[in-house]
Specification:
about 45% helix; Rossmann fold; single chain; binds adenosine-5'-triphosphate; alpha/beta; about 550 residues
Amino acid sequence: MSSPAPKRRRTQREPSPPVYKLDDNEDVELYIPVAQRRQAKLAKLTSAGSSREQAARQKQQEEEDREDEEREEERRRERVRKERTLLMEAQEVHSKKAEEDSKKTTQEKTEEADAEILAAIASRRKLASDLELAKGVSYTESVKTSWRPPRFVTDRSEDQHRKLREKYHIIVEVPDILVKFLKSKRITKPTPIQLQGIPTAFAGRDMIGIAFTGSGKTLAFCLPLIMFALEEETRLPFVRGEGPVGVILCPSRELATQTYENVMMWTAALAKDGKYPQLNTVLCIGGISMGEQSHALNKGLHIVVATPGRLIDMLEKRRFTFDNCKYLCMDEADRMIDLGFEDDVRNIMSFFKRQRQTLLFSATMPRKIQDFAQQSLVKPVLVNVGRAGAANLDVLQVVEYVKQEAKMVYLLECLQKTPPPVIIFSENKNEVDDIQEYLLLKGIEAVAIHGSKTQEERQYAIKSFKSGAKDVMVASGVASKGLDFNDIQHVIIFSMPKEIEDYVHQIGRTGRSGKTGIATTFVNMNTPEQTLLDLKYLLMEAGQKYVIYASSQI
Ligand SMILES: Nc1ncnc2c1ncn2[C@@H]1O[C@H](COP(=O)(O)OP(=O)(O)OP(=O)(O)O)[C@@H](O)[C@H]1O
């Protein structure tokens, strides 16, 4: 038997690439598929294209460089040309100036040099740190130090100081616009209340200022407020809705108007030559339309002069706020309380959002107001010129006994004592009207003012009397408190007020700012005994030879 053939196993291999050979000596070109050949051609074409582009770019770059070089060369030549021209011009100017200078005096040359320096300084920013400039910080006050001049310096008279300055050729200049203005109003040196009161107010202290009528209290409390406002405005100008810095409260519309006019006059004087900013003051009194004040209310506000009622109204309507108000001054402070304004004043105080400086000024200061001051002021400084409530010594006080029914007739005789202007006071509104009517009938130019007159009538009376158009003003005490009329010769008190303080205020319309005047007071059986005793005491204290005349007609 035969053995079976071994099984073949099929080994599976990878197919090798086909090689076609005709014979062994012949090189055969390898076959490359169409797709591969196309790709190779494309790559060849691309590389040929990019080398052409590169060559073009290089050429362009070379051209640009050449152009740049040409331009630069041209500019350089131009610069050289210009420099030559400028040099020639400068040489020309210089030689011309040298020629002119040779004709000028030394004085002219110095002046010119100074002007050049000043112009250079003016064109520069002020010397301050960048932070200060960026923040707009501007200091207006000198730095305070504890240095005080020694006695041998303070003891020198003004004349000695002047001579010393002359000897050493020292020139001292103080900014004195306001001082100059006050001088033009014949205010050359401070009155006692100003001398002591102004520094006290400047020091930020609460204060009770008492000084006789006509002694310049208005300036004493207005000046510090004006300066505080000026300081704040200079530091950072006020915009609409900001302010006021301070408020001055007055018991009557007339007194508020007069104080407002004074503040306006002083602030205008400061702003006149543009050295100081214009301050904005508002008058808030009843009887006038606030539309008149809207121009002032539409700007940042510095000072408010007001009567209590209208002020509260404005604060409640938020026409302005006391959020930043720091200064509250009450003129005729005791009268404010007497007139029943105490609650109003408390109400006004409640509108302040921060500690305020409070000042009370008056010619008289009864016990009542002193108690009030204790409650509302912080460690107040009491500046009292003369005894509180004392009469002005520049007023000659005459008291005459005149029967009630003879008063009107005697008034005509009494008016002959002095030339006009004369003020007649009566406590009774009807009596004021009667007196005015009587005087008009007798051909005397008289105006009348009392609380029942309209605002226009009151303003007309004050204006025509102040201007000198009318010789006599008949007034109720309340309406004319604190009013400052020029050169009143004679005050006639037709009916004696019950309160002696009112009497002091009334006779105080004359004998103002150092001038003398006469006050004649009619008394009779109707005058209360206590009032007569107070009057007697006042006259004795004033050192007056008081005589109660019995009028010839009686
Ligand atoms: N230093 C001064 N020198 C001269 N006159 C002055 C001086 N200060 C103020 N006056 C003037 O004195 C007059 C009276 O001033 P002011 O009205 O302030 O007095 P007052 O003390 O408020 O009086 P009253 O108690 O009657 O209200 C004003 O006409 C004012 O211009």
